[in-house]
Amino acid sequence: MDPADPPSPADSAFAAAVGAVDRGEQNLDAAVAALIDQLTERELLWLLDGDLTILRGVREMSQRYNRVPFEGGRIDRLGIPGIRFTDGPRGVALG
Known about the structure:
This protein has 95 residues and is α+β, with helices and mostly antiparallel strands. It is 39% helix and 11% strand.
């Protein structure tokens, strides 16, 4: 994952929902509900943990704690960007 990646492809369901809310065509709750309705059961379960494998996470942390953000909750099929975690036991600890 590159921290400079754009948050979502312009032609994705997520981008369409953001655009509809920005233009006032849909309220936020309705847009979120519509996106959730499009998630498969497998994708809903995927949202319950981080996206990194344990091996990659350990490898990243062994080089330096919180060297790069860890991403969770990314659903590429709908263009939903993951949340990038940079926190540590004492707050933000990136770098």
